[in-house]
Amino acid sequence: MSLKNEPRVNTSALQKIAADMSNLIENLDTRELHFEGEEVDYDVSPSDPKIQEACIPFSAIYKTQGFKEPNIQTYLSGCPIKAQVLEVERFTSTRRVPSINLYTIELTHGEFTWQVKRKFKHFQEFHRELLKYKAFIRIPIPTRRHTFRRQNVKEEPREMPSLPRSSENMIREEQFFGRRKQLEDYLTKLLKMPMYRNYHATTEFLDISQLSFIHDLGPKGIEGMIMKRSGGHRIPGLNCCGQGRACYRWSKRWLIVKDSFLLYMKPDSGAIAFVLLVDKEFKIKVGKKETETKYGLRIDNLSRTLILKCNSYRHARWWGGAIEEFIQKHGTNFLKDHRFGSYAAIQENTLAKWYVNAKGYFEDVANAMEEAEEEIFITDWWLSPEIFLKRPVVEGNRWRLDCILKRKAQQGVRIFVMLYKEVELALGINSEYSKRTLMRLHPNIKVMRHPDHVSSSVYLWAHHEKLVIIDQSVAFVGGIDLAYGRWDDNEHRLTDVGSVKRVTVGPSLGSLTAETTESMESLSLKDKNKSSKNLPTLKSVDDMDSKLKGIGKSRKFSRFSLYRQLYKHHLHNADSISSVDSAS
After folding, report:
1. Long-range CB contact pairs, 539-547, < 8 A, 24+
2. How far is CA 123 from CA 49, 366, 424, in A?
3. DSSP string spanning 563-578?
4. Which of 85, 318, 334, 474 is the 20 to 30 Å CA partner of 354?
5. pLDDT(24) > 50
6. What pTM, to 2 d.p., does this model score?
7. In angstroms, rounded to a whole number, what is the distance separating the alpha carbons of residues 427 and 437?
8. Do 84 and 292 form a contact (C-beta atoms < 8 A)?
């Protein structure tokens, strides 16, 4: 509300408010601070329905970018970040530590709450980095990235809050509260400036990344830049050839901890390099004896031993304790043994539906795929891309498996298929053809065949998992291969020829008797020649039935053929035909 619209406001009241504001600004120590309307985001209540609706979709995990790229979606839109310094830990046992105070900062962003630990020297390094960025952004460098960044911050004032200038060693214990308040105000004001809030140094200081605030990935755990050692895989073929220190390679990675897994990303590209699942063998060990590394941290599970290197022993203890505490709080179900040796806990009151025949199963799979918005996972022993999931075919190729997958891939859905890689001399399921056919439909379709028999020396087992999982919310488990020969209904036909429908032979054909047949055969050759010029030629019962069965041309059946056995018992009318042949 402006003063121009309220000319009758009491002058003494305005003077009192101005005095209170000036005292507040002096207490905040904001000598270099200068706010304007374009620079500060408005504060929004967390209970605002717009905030509750604002979320980062799960599909963002496939669109990660390098950490230094501009215009990366990291924060929830329209949602502020609140910072609070909870406590100060003071080191008094040694004088070799330059920053003797360790601050625990609690940050809140929407529904996510996490803590970071920083020393005052970290605040100083962070502040110097922002000052460099402020000076760098003024230089008109003719690059695409720099030009884009300058355009985004062109109209924003570049003044920034200042840090306290007094040394940590000069602060007495009774002054801790004032120092905590100064650092808290520094972060609060800085996070209201889009120019500095979106800078990669700020996100690294706050331990956040592009995957931090995705709701479907679970609560936010500890994150940060760390050194990772190569190797440690328990799967043959993934380790280096040697075991000495010369064979290992250290790489800088961004580590993210979630409720059921850990992952690390490459900072340059933003690609997810590895995912470590939480399982019953998940353990954390700290120390040189356990890790063979100074300031090392060791994380074990059933598939790998991951070795990390921290900046100090205290830093390694902090990482290990934070990871263990977070997993014990949010992922304790994955650390226990469950019934039937399962990794997952028993879930009560789960909605379920069972299938007897593949007709209803295929139709529900097709409908679920059509409603997919983000992901489709398929595992099969055998997969036929050209199979129709809904029969009879009344909408062309709309419900053919490859057409469904291509249509959803074009809509942005990510599709992942895992097939059994057969021994070609023993099986003819031709998984290579299925992989090649699906992958050339769209780049969003990824197909993997497993196992590699030569390198893994695996020959005596096969993948028999039949799974279709939609958006990680609907799962068809223990199912049927999406392949030929699996479609069936209550009639239990003996063959599967693609698009199947039941055809009942009309009375004109079924009423043919032996006498009618004999009269047809007794026609003279002359009459046949005359009739062939004007009328269609009449064929025998066997020939006409063979046409109805979808056979391309007339053929003679052996005496003991299946067809004669069905004809003998008057069951030939219930057989199935191909819609392709019946339409021709």
Report:
1. 541/509, 541/512, 541/517, 544/509, 545/505, 545/572
2. 35, 55, 62
3. HHHHHHTT-GGG-EEE
4. 334
5. no
6. 0.72
7. 19
8. no
Same domain, yes or no: 281 and 324: yes
Nearest-angstrom CA–CA distance, 313 and 10: 62
Quick: pLDDT tens for 220-242.
999 999 999 999 988 655 555 55
Q: Which residue has the tokens 């005359």?
A: 530
| Residue 548 pLDDT | 41
* Cα distance between residue 362 and residue 462, in whole Å: 23
Read off the pLDDT band of 149 (50, 70, 90): low
Q: Assign 3-class secondary structure to 276-332.
A: EECCCCCEEEECHHHHCCCCEEEEECCCEEEEEECCCHHHHHHHHHHHHHHHHHHCH
Q: What is the predicted pLDDT for the residue at 10?
A: 44
- Is residue 155 within 8 Å of residue 126, measured between CB atoms? no
> Residue 152 is encoded by which pair of tokens?
């985004």
Give the integer Cα–Cα distance in Å for 399 and 364: 11
**Integer Cα distance of 437 and 445 in angstroms:** 10
* In a shared domain, residues 54 and 162: yes
Alpha carbon distance 168, 150 (integer Å)? 36
SS3 68: coil
> Residues 6 or more apart from 561 whose CB is under 8 A from it?
none
CB 338, CB 346: distance < 8 Å: yes
Could you give the angle at which helices 401-410 and 431-439 cross, rounded to 10 degrees?
30
What's 330's domain CATH number?
Answer: 2.30.29.30
Helix (H) or strand (E) holding 145, with range, is: helix 144-152
Number of domains in the chain: 4
CATH code for position 464: 3.30.870.10
pLDDT at residue 480 above 80? yes
End-to-end CA distance of the chain: 78
Q: Which amino acid, one-letter code, is at 107?
A: L
CA angle 79, 80, 84 (to 5 degrees): 145
Residues, the chain: 584
Q: Which domain holds residue 288?
A: 221-341
Residue 200 falls within a domain, yes or no? Answer: yes
**Could you give the CA distance from residue 245 to residue 296 in angstroms, rounded to a whole number?**
14
At residue 122, the pLDDT reads 93
Triad 444, 446, 447: Cα angle to 5°: 155
| pLDDT tens profile 489-508 | 998 888 876 654 555 544 44
How far, in whole angstroms, is CA 294 from its chain's centroid? Answer: 35
Q: Phi then psi for 220, rounded to 5 degrees?
A: -85, 130
CA 211, 212, 213, 219 torsion-angle sign: positive
| C-alpha–C-alpha distance, residues 283 and 302, integer Å | 10
